[in-house]
Amino acid sequence: MDGAVADMKAENTGGGERGQPRDATRGARNQADAARRVEDRTLTIDGASIAIGLYRSRGRGKTGVLVYLGGDDAELAGLASEAHCLVVSFQTGAGHTIDDGRRVLDWVRANARKLGADASRLALGATGVDAGDAIAIAQTQTAGSLTLLLLRSPRLDLATVEPALLPSTFVQTGENDANPIFDFATAVLAADVELELHMASPAINRSQTPNGAKAPDVALAVGALKRALKLAAKRMSVIPLVVTVLGSFFAFAVSTYLGADLPAALGQAAMALVVPLTLQALWARWRGRG
After folding, report:
1. Per residue in 123-159, pLDDT tens?
2. CA atoms of 156 and 285, how far apart (whole Å)
3. Dihedral of CA 134/140/141/146: which sign?
4. Which of 32, 121, 192, 218 could covalently link to 64 via disulfide, CB atoms 3.0 to 4.6 Å apart?
5. 170 phi and psi, to 5 degrees?
6. What is the Cα–Cα distance from 53 to 41, expressed in whole angstroms?
7. Interstrand relation of 48-57 and 86-90 (parallel, antiparallel or unpaired)
8. What's 21's DSSP letter?
9. Sign of the C-alpha dihedral, residues 146, 149, 150, 154?
10. Which residue, 29, 26, 1, 7, is CA-closest to 215?
11. CA atoms within 13 A on the CB side of 86
12. 246 conformational bin, left if phi > 0, alpha if psi -120 to 50, beta if neither
């Protein structure tokens, strides 16, 4: 995996109260203050009735959005709060299918503006057995439409994975996850897909789940999500920057053509460049996208 974007780390998450993971203990205390459950909704799409939950950070302005399969309240509220994004949860099982997951993703894209989210910064995530469904959904999406596939303690079936169809992928696994993680990582990297892999070490990771398994630290997932959503925002900002620069050159050319001397023409070009960039920076700051 030399030269690839893969980071295999051993992380010390520290011990929580009564043997619980530090991040889970902290989440139980603080998530009610840091993020809020916006609402439960029941969507009716193509005749299917689909229950979703919405979690939002307390920041203002448009945010990135994470559609998450499975997960519990503390985990989802923590991701929304710490990554400053909207989390739309879809609970699998109870008769729901992978097609329902695709419908939720499409609904989020179509309604992102109403939700106060930015559809161009869209990630998909899952925990445990739901990872297979997330992978299946991600493989049906248009290239570039997902900024990140975030998998926590995934249960993987390599027979269903088509690595070349995946977006940039983050995988986080605990010590006792008996999965073909390395086989999955090798296949993804061989397909030239960006991958970040974190594996808990039994030697230094003291956090444990109630069943005794080592628990991956949610902070790592938050970091990956923040980087992916911010990177997507920066990529989107290149377009108005290019338009602004071209406008500056156009102003210079017109001024010169109309007979303006060189200082005046340069002044016109500078105004055509600086004013839109300043307005764009102020707008981005006000909308909370900085």
Report:
1. 999 988 899 999 999 999 998 899 999 999 888 889 9
2. 40
3. positive
4. 121
5. -115, 125
6. 6
7. antiparallel
8. B
9. positive
10. 26
11. 26
12. alpha
